[in-house]
Amino acid sequence: MHISVLLDEVIDGLNLHDDSVVVDATLGYAGHSSEILKRIKRGCLYGIDQDGEAISHSKRQLSSIGDNFVLIKTNFINMKEQLAIHGVVEVDAILFDLGVSSPQLDTASRGFSYHQDARLDMRMNQDDETLDIFSAYEVVNNYSKEELTDIFFRYGEEKFSRQIADKIVTYRRNKPITTTLELVEIIKSAVPEKIKCQKHPAKKVFQAIRIEVNHELDILEESLQEALSLLAINGRLAVITFHSLEDRIVKNLFKKASSIDNVVKGMPLDKIPVKYLPKFKLVNNKAITPSAVELSKNNRAHSAKLRIIERIR
């Protein structure tokens, strides 16, 4: 079962109105979108996801609430271009929920989970029919020790990156690594016993591989920039992140967008020309995190952080 993270906080933060035009850039299984649609009876919801299964499920889910929605199967990097095709150049609210949805994690065949056995995959878009399909299998079996070490450290912040990469390269000399639990056992063999007791030793490595396979960080900042450019006056952008790399990108981008231009730093505020004033303001200075009540119901929410920014001119 999929439980939407920070649902009440997102709905409050987006400042929705009956006629709002809203984009859910990471539709998933329509948890947030279902609540959004209930609140915009005269507005319109545009849901974006590259996962065909998520699109199909969400269509059924949202149809039980209303018909004022459009679902677009694409990566959110294409959001602005796809909205323009539908005649939309300005919106009132945009949501990014950057977590992997529970059905994706729980469906063993997707290869995201380090608890269930499946072929190494981790593609968000499983409808890719190209001959050269790039998945977790290619990363694990074809990347050099140096490349594996780099992505485990950079995208997973894994302290034992080099040791894990070394074990992977040694193991695959005899046979390819084909399944998730096969990889988990290799990772376990590379880390100290005390680490295994503290947390699942494969968590950070699986995160890093997933980010690499789906180019997640490469496209995030550009997509957020486009999202900001789509906002109408008083429009809001809300972003939920689940690890420090994503949150750092969002935090730095929001800080820059809501700050006075460096050219006029130190000048009295009433003397600064309007063109140098920020077009955005932070709705929350500190990231919003799940309550103790939510954490007791949904363990997957524990690392979530929500940041919201509003266009003011």
Strand order, largest beta sheet: 3-2-1-4-5-7-6
- Going by CATH, the homologous superfamily of the largest domain would be Vaccinia Virus protein VP39
Strand elements, count: 7
Question: Pairing-aware structural class of the strands and helices?
Answer: alpha/beta
User: Approximately what portion of the residues adopt beta-strand conformation?
Assistant: 5-15%
Distance separating the two termini: 41 Å
Model regions low in confidence, pLDDT < 50 over at least 5 residues: none
Annotated CATH topology of the largest domain: Rossmann fold
Query: Which geometry do the CA atoms define?
Result: globular
The chain-level mean pLDDT equals 91
Q: Over the alpha carbons, how many angstroms does the gyration radius reach?
A: 21 Å
Outline the biggest β-sheet. Answer: 7 strands, mixed
Q: Given this structure, which CATH class of the largest domain is correct?
A: Alpha Beta
Number of helices: 14
What is the N-to-C succession of helices and strands? Answer: HEHEHEHEHHHHHHHHEHEHE
Helix content: 40-55%
Describe the structure.
The chain is of the alpha/beta class. The chain has helices at residues 7-13, 31-38, 52-63, 79-85, 102-106, 136-142, 145-156, 161-172, 180-188, 193-198, 203-214, 216-230, 244-257, 292-297, and strands at residues 21-24, 44-49, 69-73, 91-97, 231-241, 280-282, 305-311. A 7-stranded mixed sheet has the order 3-2-1-4-5-7-6, sandwiched between helices. Strand 1, helix 2 and strand 2 form a beta-alpha-beta unit. Helix 7 (145-156) crosses helix 11 and helix 12 (216-230) runs parallel beside helix 13 (244-257). The mean pLDDT is 91.
